[in-house]
C-alpha cells in the first residue's frame, strides 16, 4: 500500500518550491527569479530525486520539466499523484499541445511553455498557490439537484445514483460556480477568471478539459449532457434545477 504524504499546511513564512530539471542552467534561472520574489527553493535533477525531495521537504509547489532522463515528467507526475496533492506546474516545449493536455489529465495544475520570461513564471506560480490557498466554504447541507444527482459541498463530492464520487479541487470549484449561477449562462472568460484566476481568462482549453471531466463524472450520457449545458461561443450554463423543482411541486 502506498503511503500518502499529508497535505501541506498553509505556510506562515516563505513558500517552498521544488524545481525539477536536468539542466543546471535552467534550475539556476528559475531559482534566482523565485528567490527574488521571496520563495525558498529546493532542487532535483530528475524524477527519482523529485519524489525523494517531495517526501523529505513537502513543498508548497513543484515546477517540473517534462523532458528528463531516467524518469520523465509525465511518469514522475503520475507517481507523485499517488502520494501527494501538491500543486504542479509543468515546463513544456512551445507548441506541444498534446504534452500540455496529457499533463493536465495526469493531474498537473498548470504549465509554462519554454522559453518563458521570469514575469510569466512568477505570475503562474503566484496564481497556482493562490488557488491552492482559497478557503473551502463552510459546511452546508447536501444539495439535491434531482433524484439522481446531489452535491455534498462539505466533502467536495457529488453523489450519483447513491454513489459518492470524489472531485478534484479544480473540478469542485468549477461545479460550485456553475451551480451558484444555475439557469444563467456564465461566459468562458468569467469561469476562467473565477476558477483559475484572472491571468487565465484566455486559456479556453482548460475550461473544455475540465467541463469534460465533470460531465464524465455526473452526466448519465456525457455526449448528451443535461446538467452542464454548452452555450456555443459564449460559455456554459448549469440547468436551472430550482425552477424544475418548483414546477414539480405545483
Features:
2 domains; 12 strands; alpha/beta; 41% helix; 250 residues; disordered C terminus; single chain; Rossmann fold; 4-stranded antiparallel beta sheet; 5-stranded parallel beta sheet; Arc Repressor Mutant, subunit A; 9 helices; elongated
Q: Evaluate the radius of gyration.
A: 20 Å
Record the strand order, biggest sheet.
2-1-3-4-5
Query: Main β-sheet: number of strands, strand sense, barrel status?
Result: 5 strands, parallel
Helical stretch tally: 9
Helix content: 40-55%
- Low-pLDDT runs of 5+ residues are 8-12, 246-250
Proportion of β residues?
15-25%
Q: What's the CATH H-level superfamily name of the largest domain?
A: Response regulator
Q: Which overall shape is indicated by the principal axes computed on the Cα atoms?
A: elongated
Q: Assign the CATH topology of the largest domain.
A: Rossmann fold
Structural class: alpha/beta
CATH class of the largest domain: Alpha Beta
- Domain count, please report it: 2
Summary, kept brief:
The chain has helices at 24-36, 47-57, 73-80, 97-106, 118-133, 169-180, 188-195, 204-218, 241-249; strands spanning 16-20, 40-44, 61-65, 88-93, 110-114, 143-144, 149-152, 157-160, 163-166, 185-187, 228-231, 235-238.
Amino acid at each position: 500500500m502506498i503511503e500518502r504524504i499529508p497535505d501541506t499546511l498553509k505556510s506562515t513564512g516563505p513558500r517552498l518550491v521544488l524545481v525539477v530539471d536536468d539542466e543546471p542552467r535552467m534550475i539556476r534561472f528559475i531559482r534566482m527569479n523565485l528567490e527574488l520574489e521571496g520563495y525558498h527553493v529546493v532542487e532535483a535533477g530528475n524524477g527519482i530525486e523529485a519524489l525523494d525531495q517531495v517526501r523529505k521537504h513537502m513543498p508548497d509547489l513543484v515546477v517540473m520539466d517534462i523532458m528528463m532522463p531516467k524518469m520523465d515528467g509525465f511518469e514522475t507526475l503520475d507517481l507523485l499523484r499517488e502520494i501527494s496533492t501538491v500543486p504542479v506546474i509543468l515546463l513544456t516545449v512551445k507548441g506541444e499541445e498534446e504534452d500540455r493536455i496529457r499533463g493536465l489529465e495526469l493531474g498537473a495544475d498548470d504549465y509554462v511553455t519554454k522559453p518563458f520570461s521570469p514575469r510569466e513564471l512568477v505570475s503562474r506560480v503566484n496564481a497556482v498557490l493562490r488557488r491552492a490557498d482559497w478557503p473551502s466554504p463552510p459546511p452546508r447541507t447536501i444539495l439535491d439537484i434531482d433524484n439522481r444527482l446531489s452535491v455534498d459541498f462539505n466533502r467536495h463530492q457529488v453523489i450519483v445514483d447513491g454513489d459518492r464520487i470524489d472531485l478534484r479541487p479544480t473540478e469542485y470549484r468549477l461545479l460550485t460556480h456553475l451551480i451558484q449561477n444555475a439557469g444563467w449562462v456564465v461566459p468562458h472568460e468569467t469561469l476562467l477568471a473565477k476558477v483559475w484566476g484572472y491571468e487565465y481568462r484566455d486559456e479556453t482549453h482548460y475550461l473544455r478539459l475540465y467541463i469534460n471531466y465533470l460531465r464524465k463524472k455526473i452526466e448519465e450520457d456525457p455526449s448528451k449532457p443535461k446538467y452542464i449545458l454548452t452555450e456555443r461561443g459564449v460559455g456554459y450554463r448549469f440547468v436551472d434545477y430550482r425552477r424544475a423543482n418548483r414546477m414539480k411541486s405545483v
